[in-house]
UniProtKB/TrEMBL annotation:
It is a multi-pass membrane protein. The chain crosses the membrane at residues 41-66, 86-105, 258-280, 301-323, 335-354, 366-386, 392-419. It is found in: Membrane. It comes from the Bacteria. Pfam families: Voltage_CLC (PF00654). CDD domains: Voltage_gated_ClC. Gene3D superfamilies: Clc chloride channel (1.10.3080.10). The keyword ATP-binding does not apply. This is Chloride channel protein. The keyword Chaperone does not apply. The lineage of its organism: Bacteria, Pseudomonadati, Pseudomonadota, Alphaproteobacteria, Rhodobacterales.
C-alpha cells in the first residue's frame, strides 16, 4: 500500500511538472507574440535593473582590481600612491594599457571607436531601443583596461552602453516593439546609473532626460523599479554610504552669496564648453594624423597612453576617474594655484584619452573639472568678501554640478546625482542656481550637450526633435508603391523619368526623398536599384510625395503617443 501511494505521488509530481512546463511555454509564446503586460513588464524591469546593477558593479570592481594590480591602490588614493612609484612604471603602464585597448577595438569594432552614451541615445531614437552588442562588450573591456592602467576618463559611459547590451538581448528575445525596446533600454540605463553613483532618483531621471529625451508616464514606474534594483545591488556591496563625505558646515551666509553662484554658473558653462571643444579638437587632430600617416588603428590609443604616461609622472592626479582629487576639492584641501594647474592638466589628459580613442566616459571628468573650477572660484570669492562667505566647499559642490550638467545637457538628473553622491541637501539652492545658468549658456555654445554634439559630428541630428530624426531612419523602399501594383505609375513613365535624371536610389532615407521632392516639384519619383557593371538601373517602384508625408505624419503621431502615453 505504501509503495502504491509513493508511486502515485511521484506520478502526480511528474504530471504537475509537465503542466508547469506547458504553462511556462504557453506564457512565453504569449509574451513573444503579444508583448508583455503591465505586471510582466514590471517584473522584466526588475530583472533588467538587477542585471544592469550587477554589470555596473562588476565593471567598477574590474577597474579597481586592475588598478591594484598596476598601481597597488584604487581610485580614492591613486594620486597619493602613484606619485611615489618609479617614474618608468608610471610611464609604461598607460602605454601597455593603450596597446591592449587598441588591439581590442581594432579586432572587435569596425571603426576602432568606443561605444558610450551617445550610441545609446542613437539606439533609443533610431534603432528601436537596440544597441550594438559585440561592440558594446568590446568597449566595456577596453574601458576597464583604460581606467585601470592610467586613462583619464569616467566609467559611466561604457556602463550605460553595457546596460543597453543587456536590454537589447532581452528586447530581441521577447521580440519587443520599438516602443517597448526603448522603455527596456531606459530601465537598463536607470539601473546602471543608479548602481554606478548610488543614486536611484538620478538614475531614473537620467534615463528619461538623457536617453529617452522625454518624460513618459507609461515608462516611469518600470524605470523607477530598475533604478531601485540597481541601487540595492550597489548598497549590498558598498553599503548606504555616499561617494563623498562633506563637512557639515556648508551653509549660505544669509543668502548674500547667491550672486556669486550666478557668476560661478556662467564661468562653469565656459569651462564645460572649453573642455568639450578640447575633446573634439583632439579627436579631429588625431583623425587627420591617422589619415595622413596610414598608421594602423591600434597605434592611436597606444600613442595616447604614452602621452598620458608622460603627463602622469609629474601629475599623477590625472590617472583614473579622479575621485581623490574631487574629494580634496570638495573639502577645500587644495590651494588656488594647485587647483588651476590641476584643472588645466586634467582637461588636457581627458582630451588625449577620449581623442586617442581609449575607453571611458566624460561625465566623471566633468565632475572633477567642476569641483576644481568651483573651488578656485570659491577661494577668490571668499577672499574678496570673507565677512559674507560660508564654507568654500559649497562652491566646489556647485561647480561640480554646473560643469557636469552642461556637459551632459541634463540639469535635472545631474543636480540629483550631486545631491545623492554627497548627501548634502542644504545647499540645493546654490547648486540649482549654478546648474540652471550653466546649462542655459552651454547649450548655446555647443550643440545642446557633449553627446548630441558627438552625434551631430557623425551626421546624426537628434537634437532638433523627431521631426528631423524620424525621416533619417525611414527607408524609401518601405513607403514606395512597387512596380506593377494597381496604383503604381506605368513602367514606361518611370523609365522616362529615370532617363531625365529624376529618381531616388533604393537605399536612401525619407529625409533625402523629401528634399528631392522640393527640388523636383513632382508628385512622385521612381525608386531604382542603381546600375552595376554597365547594366541598366532596375526600377523597383515609385515614391509618391503624399505617401512620404503620410508616413512621416504617422511616425510623428506614434512618437507623440509614446511621449505622452
Amino acid at each position: 500500500m505504501a509503495d502504491r501511494q509513493d508511486g502515485t505521488s511521484k506520478g502526480w509530481g511528474r504530471q504537475g511538472l509537465r503542466h508547469l512546463r506547458a504553462h511556462l511555454a504557453r506564457g512565453w509564446r504569449v509574451l513573444v507574440t503579444r508583448g508583455p503586460g503591465q505586471i510582466e513588464f514590471w517584473i522584466i524591469a526588475l530583472l533588467i535593473g538587477i542585471c544592469a546593477g550587477l554589470a555596473a558593479l562588476v565593471f567598477r570592481l574590474g577597474i579597481g582590481a586592475l588598478q591594484h594590480l598596476a598601481y597597488g591602490t584604487d581610485d580614492m588614493t591613486m594620486a597619493s600612491v602613484a606619485g611615489r612609484l618609479p617614474w618608468w612604471w608610471v610611464l609604461i603602464v598607460p602605454i601597455i594599457g593603450g596597446f591592449v585597448v587598441g588591439l581590442i577595438l581594432d579586432r572587435f569594432t569596425p571603426d576602432g571607436r568606443v561605444r558610450a552614451v551617445a550610441d545609446v541615445i542613437e539606439g533609443a531614437a533610431l534603432d528601436g531601443g537596440r544597441v550594438e552588442t559585440r561592440e558594446g562588450l568590446a568597449s566595456a573591456a577596453a574601458s576597464i583596461i583604460t581606467l585601470g592602467t592610467g586613462g583619464s576618463s569616467g566609467r559611466e559611459g561604457p556602463v550605460v552602453h553595457l546596460a543597453g547590451v543587456i536590454s537589447t538581448y532581452v528586447a530581441n528575445r521577447i521580440n519587443a516593439s520599438a516602443m517597448t525596446g526603448r522603455e527596456l533600454l531606459g530601465c537598463a540605463v536607470a539601473g546602471a546609473v543608479a548602481a554606478s553613483f548610488n543614486a536611484p532618483i538620478a538614475g531614473a531621471l537620467f534615463a528619461h532626460e538623457v536617453i529617452l529625451r522625454h518624460f513618459a508616464s507609461r515608462a516611469f514606474a518600470p524605470i523607477a523599479i530598475s533604478a531601485v534594483a540597481g541601487t540595492v545591488i550597489n548598497r549590498l556591496r558598498y553599503g548606504g554610504l555616499t561617494e563623498f563625505d562633506l563637512p557639515r558646515t556648508n551653509a549660505l551666509g544669509f543668502y548674500v552669496e547667491l550672486p556669486a553662484f550666478v557668476v560661478l554658473g556662467l564661468i562653469c558653462a565656459l569651462v564645460a564648453a572649453a573642455m568639450m571643444a578640447a575633446i573634439f579638437r583632439a579627436e579631429t587632430i588625431a583623425n587627420r594624423i591617422m589619415a595622413r600617416t596610414g598608421w594602423p588603428r591600434w597605434w592611436r590609443p597606444t600613442i595616447a597612453g604614452a602621452m598620458l604616461g608622460l603627463i602622469a609622472i609629474p601629475f599623477p592626479h590625472i590617472i583614473g576617474v579622479g575621485y581623490e582629487t574631487t574629494a580634496a576639492a570638495l573639502k577645500g584641501d587644495l590651494g588656488l594655484w594647485t587647483v588651476i594647474v590641476f584643472a588645466l592638466i586634467k582637461a588636457v589628459a581627458v582630451a588625449i584619452t577620449l581623442g586617442g580613442r581609449m575607453g571611458g566616459g566624460v561625465f566623471s571628468p566633468a565632475l572633477v573639472m567642476g569641483a576644481l573650477t568651483g573651488l578656485a572660484f570659491g577661494i577668490i570669492a571668499t577672499g574678496l568678501a570673507p565677512q559674507y562667505s560660508g564654507n568654500i566647499g559649497i562652491y566646489a559642490l556647485a561647480g561640480m554640478g554646473a560643469v557636469g550638467a552642461a556637459v551632459l545637457g541634463a540639469p535635472i538628473s545631474t543636480a540629483m546625482i550631486i545631491f545623492e553622491m554627497t548627501g548634502d541637501w542644504q545647499t540645493g539652492i546654490a547648486v540649482m542656481t549654478t546648474v540652471s545658468l550653466s546649462s542655459a549658456l552651454a547649450s548655446r555654445l555647443v550643440h545642446r550637450s557633449f553627446f548630441l554634439t558627438q552625434l551631430e559630428r557623425r551626421g546624426i541630428r537628434i537634437a532638433e526633435g523627431p521631426q528631423v530624426w524620424l525621416p533619417q531612419k525611414m527607408r524609401v523602399t518601405a513607403v514606395m508603391r512597387a512596380l506593377g501594383t494597381r496604383d503604381a505609375p506605368s513602367a514606361d513613365l518611370l523609365r522616362n523619368m529615370v532617363a531625365a535624371g529624376q529618381w531616388i536610389a533604393e537605399g536612401e532615407r525619407l529625409d533625402f526623398a523629401l528634399r528631392r521632392f522640393d527640388e523636383a516639384g513632382a508628385a512622385f519619383l521612381p525608386v531604382i536599384q542603381p546600375a552595376r557593371d554597365g547594366a541598366e538601373p532596375e526600377i523597383l517602384g515609385a515614391l509618391y510625395h503624399v505617401d512620404a508625408l503620410r508616413a512621416l505624419n504617422t511616425a510623428l503621431a506614434a512618437a507623440a503617443a509614446e511621449e505622452h502615453g
